[in-house]
Specification:
elongated, 2 domains, alpha+beta, five-stranded antiparallel β-sheet
């Protein structure tokens, strides 16, 4: 009697361990797929001719495409990069962007951006809510010189 109960217990433990191993294996495969998908998406963003940003809801940048440094001539989040947007434009953009972030609403604007040669160009800007509530995608389009 004790022997058959022990065998039944060992079998249950074995089955639970087998199911746990399967679940962990599936989790690892899912994680690997997600990592590969994220890397593929980043390559697509890096290949776009536009400047693309991802901002967190707290206002910090999560991602900036290589086009920023190519256009502005300075790495993102540097003092030189901050100077690429005139102070008046930066203040208005920040206020409007922060309001959109608080409300969870899309945002569109135009602002001046100084290129690596010192020329100011009008560029469109768009912010749209991301499916994750703590993150927003922030995209910059092509140049507009119509003002």
């Amino acid at each position: 009697m004790i022997c058959s109960a022990l065998i039944a217990l060992v079998y249950r433990v074995y089955e639970r361990q087998r199911r746990l191993d399967q679940a962990l294996s599936a989790h690892a495969a899912t994680r690997q797929t997600l990592v590969e998908s994220d890397a593929r998406f980043k390559r697509y963003l890096d290949a776009l001719p536009d400047i693309v940003y991802t901002w967190k809801a707290d206002g910090s940048q999560e991602y900036v495409s290589p086009r920023w440094a190519e256009y502005v001539g300075a790495p993102p989040m540097s003092d030189e990069a901050a100077a690429a947007v005139p102070a008046d434009d930066a203040r208005v953009l920040r206020e409007e962007r922060d309001g959109a972030l608080r409300r969870g609403e899309p945002f569109r604007a135009q602002f001046r951006l100084r290129d690596r040669h010192g020329r100011l160009r009008w560029v469109p800007d768009a912010l749209c809510p991301h499916p994750r509530p703590e993150t927003f995608d922030y995209g910059l389009g092509g140049h507009l010189d119509r003002r």
